[in-house]
Amino acid sequence: MSQTPRPRRRRVRNAVIAAATTVTLAAGGGTAWALDRFVVDHVEIADVSA
Description:
This protein has one helix at residues 5-39. It has one helix and no strands. The termini are far apart. Helices cover 70% and strands 0% of the residues.
């Protein structure tokens, strides 16, 4: 009877870890995009021959 809860507990733990990893990666990607879009200065080339 003591072996039944362990696989379920492990499954729940793995699901929580997977969800946290997904949220972390999504937030990191959004942060990188926002920094690139709004914070980092980009060079504009007015004349290619220059």
